[in-house]
Amino acid sequence: MRINPNGHIPTIDDGGLVQHESLAINLYLAKRYGGRLGPANVAEDGQMGMWALWAATEVEPHSLQVQYHRVSYPPAEQDPKIAAAAVEALRKPFAVLDRKLAETGFLVGGRFTWLISMWQRSCAMRCRRRNCSRRRQRCAGGWRLATPGRRTDG
Known about the structure:
Blueprint: E1 11-14, E2 17-20, H1 22-33, H2 42-72, H3 80-104, H4 114-130
Antiparallel strand pairs: 1-2
């Protein structure tokens, strides 16, 4: 509460500039310290902002429902129908992501950036929760949506 009035994490204090909200922190850090991971110009900055907000609006709400109803909630509160509907809803944004990654393998600037790093971290977390091998999991381009009780490594 001393640093973040919401009482949440993450929060950073970078030389007196306090930031909370993970998306804002990632955007700030990419611009300030990112080097090749950050935007090279204003056009890339716009593209990175676009993809970050796209993930927050098109993917995250459905991903959270999958997480809640397959992992986070106690079993008695999990609703398989809600999880299944969320998985189905994710097919469209993941198809958009697959098409973009099929162009060059990258989202912005034809290179590895903090955006891909963000997606890979998210995939690795999903892999650990599902007890699958991250090396064998296809996380960027060729997304695999898990079904209950089925491993997705292969």
